[in-house]
Amino acid sequence: MERELWVEKYRPKKLEEVIASKEVLEKVKLWAKKWEMGKPQKPLLLAGPPGVGKTSLAHAIAGSFGWEVVELNASDQRNWQIIYRIVGESAFNETISDEGEFYSTKEGKLKLIILDEVDNIHKKEDFGGEGALIKLIKRGPKQPMILTANDPYNLSAELRNLCEMIQFKRLDKRRIVAVLERICSKEGIKADKKALEAIASNAGGDLRAAINDLQAIAEGKKEIRVEDVVTAKRVKELDVFTVMMKIFKTKIPAYNDVMLLDESPEDFIVWIDENLPLEYKGEELEEAYDYLSRADIFLGRVRRRQFYRLWRYATYLMSCGVQQAKKDAKKGFTRYRRPIIWQMLFQTKSKRERLKAILTKIGKYSHMSRRKALEMIPFIKILLNQSLEIAANVAAFYNFSLDDLEFLLQDRKRAEEILNYVREKGLHRVEDEEFYLRQFKETKQEEPKKEESLVEKEIDNKKTEKSESDKKTKDKRKSKKAVSDVTLDKFFE
Amino acid sequence: MIDVIVTGDVLKTIAKALVALVSEARFHFKDEGMHSRAVDPANVAMVIVDVPSESFEAYSAEEDVIGVDVNRIYDISKTIKSKELVEIKVEESTMTIKFGSVQYSVQLIDPSAIRKEPKVPNLELPAKIVMDAGEFKKVIQAADKISDHVVFRSDDTGFYIEAEGDVDKIEFHMSESELIEFNKASARSMFSVEYLKEFVKIAGSGDILTIYLGTNYPVRLIFDVCDGKAKVEYILAPRIEE
Fold first, then answer.
1. Taken in order A265, A266, A267, A269, is the CA torsion positive or negative?
2. A95·B44 Cβ contact <8 A
3. According to the per-residue pLDDT averaged within each range, which of A249-253, A264-268, B236-240 is highest?
4. A8 CB neighbour count, 10 Å cutoff
5. Contacts of residue A142 in chain B, CB cutoff 8 Å?
6. Residue B99's beta-bridge partner residues?
7. Burial class of residue B140, CB neighbours in 10 A (0-12, 13-18, 19+)
8. Where are the alpha helices (H) located in A172-231, listed in sequence order?
9. What digits encode the pLDDT tens for the residues A315-367?
10. Taking CB atoms and an 8 Å cutoff, what residues of chain A touch B237?
11. Among A1, A210, A420, A489, which residue is least crowded by beta carbons within 10 Å?
12. A105 at B interface, C-beta within 8 A
């Protein structure tokens, strides 16, 4: 059984039901009336954060004035052909309504063209969409048009200037509470005002989010108390468990439940991965992991190509696919656990970063990718365990730091030994530009000191702070005066 | 369960007629025959397709509504020859099209997922013009070369189609004696060529076209195609003129 979303159920049908400031409503009403009187107006651009009622307002205008609606939203493709074909033809022709009636603009029966989230028209598959839209608007559409955008400054200035922009602000908490109260009374739910206030402030001015939260909390309840809302955060996590239970224990398609979750497929797959072996055994387990790996392939494609439409396939595979892998519905209670991978990733973060730094150095000096450099690691480890001279040469060649060496050798003492040897012998990379630069700077700065002039003295005084710290490093470097260059040739002698 | 046999040209025409406006459509199978209608996504035009059961070589169908991905059927229909016999079978949620030794199966779409079907509008259109569809096709294709809109006009001197480009002009005129049927009523409306050029693709010379025209009103274009075996009607809303 599909449950109806309250956001859809209570979407305003008439202008009077829309939550918006008086000025906005008046402006929009005037705009629509002028259209009805046969005076074409600039398209409206409704701009503002999500969930403040931009699209609802557009639909409510059509509802109030009895106009037909042609809508192109973000999930539709909107390249230039489609914009020309649908928006273009809509805007310059009279209307045949969905009901099959003829609407004539001469009788004030118009067709409202709604372009949702136009700031999203920049994707690759929407090639040329914005340009086509600009051309059409310049030709002066004969039917009213409304564009919505979260961030109008993502649009070209040209398009923005062709439209009449109306800025929406985040909704006031009290107005959100009022709407929630109305919905509760219509749904026959007794709600504590404090509870609704908590939901409202949690939503941060996003009415859609507030209504969704309310519906989630009110699910199967006749009464909402403050405690229900306080635990809402935990409800979220509980939800992951319920959905997992549905996936593992039943064969009722759980696709929609996963879509309603607050977790992205990329996170949810980890939950399933973690708990799958607790439920499935043997062949079932193998088959389920097969589905899961396919889902993972889709997730990878999403990330590489930024093509989020593929998420649904990943979600299908990880929910319904895994569900179908079992022979019978599982019984009993299983205690699911949180995925440990995130904790692991957190703990190993510094290690992974150290490795990355090492690989970057190897890659840079041996001219290879980081991935290829990973194959070098064992050999470098062996070299570092040879005589001190060889190890020091390798360390100098790759410019390894103490931490790098310690990471590779797992032995701080040996790392220090190697590094000391490097310092003593003044080993360095032969093509190390920085090294020569430092040398160059030292000589350059030393020279003027010998023939100090008064002016320079003053400058010197100003620089004292700096030069003092410089001096420290300089002293260190001076001991390195006797330098010998490290090249790979040494290894082949 | 639906199991019908029809000649290739009928299937090709139905697919072509619908694909001009929509990508998905509902097909109704009734005792009288097959019927489908849909409004295009821009809410400018409507298509109504009727194939009476007598036009099928064999027709056995329970009353049913199916949702069809018209694009797929259109693509596959291109490979079918006009004279070839085609068997169309619908079982559960699969449609099977057999022609020659080829069997093509396609999943149906849940009809409830397809856009609501329109009613057939009740239009009062004074002028009635009956003419050869092939002639009409020629004018529209010529008009497409110079303009994106055409004017249909009729008075007691005949039926006119006019298109105007920046530097050129096309005028088509047929008097009563040249037309198959004409009631001499006055009417005038302007239409998008973009739609008309898609509509005429189903027409061949010898097919009969009936036009009902009003003033600043939609036009009804009724094509009798495939030797009268199928009827395709388009209703097109007029351009908005200043």
1. positive
2. yes
3. B236-240
4. 8
5. 240
6. B86, B102
7. buried
8. 173-187, 193-203, 207-218, 226-230
9. 889 988 998 888 887 777 777 888 888 778 877 888 888 899 999 989 888 88
10. 93-96, 102-103
11. A1
12. yes
How far is the alpha carbon of B216 from chain A, nearest alpha carbon, in Å?
8
Q: What residue has token string 């009928």?
A: B10
How is domain B2-113 classified at the CATH fold level?
A: Proliferating Cell Nuclear Antigen (3.70.10)
A92 at the B interface (CB within 8 A)?
A: yes
Q: Is the pLDDT of residue A475 over 70?
A: no
Q: Which member of A86, A99, A104 has the closest CB to residue B42?
A: A86
A216: number of CA atoms within 13 Å, CB side? 21
Which residue numbers of B have CB closer than 8 Å to A's CBs? Answer: 39, 41-46, 115-116, 118-121, 123, 192, 194-195, 216-218, 235, 237-240
Ordered by start, the domain boundaries in chain B are 2-113, 127-236
pTM for the model = 0.63
Q: Which architecture does CATH list for B127-236?
A: Box (3.70)
pLDDT (tens digit per residue) in A24-64? 899 999 999 999 988 899 999 999 888 888 989 999 999 99
| Ranges of residues in chain B whose predicted pLDDT is under 50 | none
A89:B192 CB<8 A: yes
Q: Which residues of A touch B240 (CB under 8 A)?
A: 92-94, 105, 142-143
Q: What pairs with residue B191 in β-bridges?
A: B150
Q: How many helices (H) and strands (E) does chain B have?
A: 4, 18
Cα–Cα distances (Å) from B147 to A121, A280, A337, B139, in that order, read: 29, 66, 67, 12
For residues A35 and A107, give the distance between their C-alpha atoms in angstroms, rounded to a whole number. 11
Nearest to A399 by CA among A364, A372, A451, A371: A364
Spatial CA neighbour of A10 closest among A53, A41, A71: A53
- The Cα of B17 is separated from the nearest Cα of chain A by a number of Å equal to 17
